[in-house]
Amino acid sequence: MVHIEQASEPQLREQLADLLDRYDQLAAGKLALDLTRGKPGAAQVALSDALDGILEGDYRAADGTDVRNYGGLDGLAEARILFGNVLGTLPEETLVGGNSSLTLMYQVIDFALTEGLRGPESAWARREPVKFLCPVPGYDRHFSICEYLGIEMLPVRMLETGPDMDQVEGLVAADPAIKGIWCVPRFSNPSGCVYSDNTVERMARLPKLASPEFVVMWDNAYAIHSLYDDAPELASIGKWARQFDTMDGIFQFGSTSKVTFAGAGVAFMGSSERNLSTFKAHLAFQTIGPDKVNQLRHVRFLRDAETLAAHMAKHAAHIRPRFDCVLDILDRELEGTGMASWTQPRGGYFISVDALPGLASEIISLADKIGVKLTPAGATFPYGKDPEDRNIRLSPTFPSLEDLQTSIDAFALCVKIASIRQRLG
Ligand code: PLP
Question: What is the ipTM of this complex?
Answer without folding.
Answer: 0.99
